[in-house]
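During the no-cost extension, the postdoctoral fellow (Dr. R.K.) reprocessed legacy sequence entries with the updated structure-token encoder. One reprocessed record is reproduced below for audit purposes.
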Amino acid sequence: MKIIDRIALVLVIIGAINWGLIGLFGFNLVESIFGAMSVVSRIIYTLVGISGLWAIRYFTYDHD
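Re-encoded structure tokens follow.
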């Protein structure tokens, strides 16, 4: 697995955990650490979104 794939996977997992916390407890981990819509928060959200788009390509892999 290439390094960019691993980074994308980690960011997608972070995003999934954050959304799970929001859905279950109404707690946004990214905002609590970096502030509501701060520059850093927006960068993290952008990177997670790009990683999600990158992960779409995993559906085209032949896993046999």
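The chain has one domain: 3-60. Helices lie at 3-25, 29-34, 39-55. The remaining legacy entries will be reprocessed before the final report is submitted.
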